[in-house]
Write a structure and sequence with these properties.
alpha+beta, three-stranded antiparallel β-sheet, single chain, elongated, 3 helices
Length: 95
């Protein structure tokens, strides 16, 4: 897991963002091979030998990650404006 933040100002407008990630499991490619994760002293991935992690890969672990984000600003926006801003952020994150 990790935490990240960013902020910016434009004149009197201040916008800040805080994101917290609690990631569980290994990073696997489309074929199920581990490409990143916790390693033993010998350099082997723990997930290769742990039958519980291997069994749940692609099922439980895909749903066990949590990402929380908050965007805060001193700007005043109505509900429609906030919806449009969120749509722009969502569209940008999908690229």
């Amino acid at each position: 897991g990790d935490i990240g933040s960013a902020s910016t100002t434009m004149g009197d407008l201040v916008v800040g963002c805080l994101v917290v990630v609690n990631a569980g499991g290994d990073i696997v490619d489309r074929t199920g091979n581990i490409i990143a994760g916790a390693r033993s002293k010998e350099g082997r991935f723990f997930g290769e030998a742990d039958e519980h992690r291997t069994f749940s890969r692609g099922k439980v672990l895909d749903q066990s990650n949590t990402t929380l984000a908050i965007v805060a600003t001193n700007g005043e926006f109505n509900k429609t404006e906030l919806f449009r801003i969120s749509q722009q952020i969502w569209t940008s994150s999908q690229k």
